[in-house]
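1st attempt posting a full record on here, be nice pls
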Amino acid sequence: MKFSNKKKILFVISDFGPGGAQRVLSNLANSLVNREYDVYVFLFSNIKPFYKLNKKIKLIQNDMVKENNGLLNKLFFNLKKVIILKSFLQNVKPDTTISFIFETNVITILSKLGVDTKLIISERNNPYHQKGNFIWNLLRKITYFIPKFIVVNNRFAFDYFLKSHKRKIILVNNPIKKHKKIIIKKEKNILVVSRLHSQKSLDDIIMAYSYITKEFRDWKLTIV
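the predicted structure (as tokens):
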């Protein structure tokens, strides 16, 4: 494999499905490759990407989605991820590595040890609602001191990491793509588009709506 002299940016994420983190990654990767960076996207999944990537971006996929049961099997499975990613880091030698989402962040941090690359990790959820097991939570506390920066997209995550990582925590809201202005008739409707997951706190939204409708009976709530 031949490498150019351009600055190399490596993105690491578990899969490239239709998620918010994947959308942000695709926007960043496409923007950077258009600015003449050498961009790589490393996945632990070999499923076809949902979002479109520029043909200049080097996509590296691995068939490591299925996880076996049992503590030892899980330990071996994740250790294998660390070894594979570390080997790739040593081979490519990216100037900057950007990792997305809690468990993948931990895997990337462990893989980065001994490799000269500036590491930025991105948390995309509310940690107060993200119930990882004891081992993953402990690894997060131990390893999150290593990255250069921790990027979050919400105030809850910012407050969560502020006490222990004050000098490296950065709040960056999710980007919104500009579209041509469309004139539509507005309705009194609250629209929520989300996965049906506890992290999204849809129960809080429904409860808040129940209070609102006591006074504003003509408002509707639509959950997609």
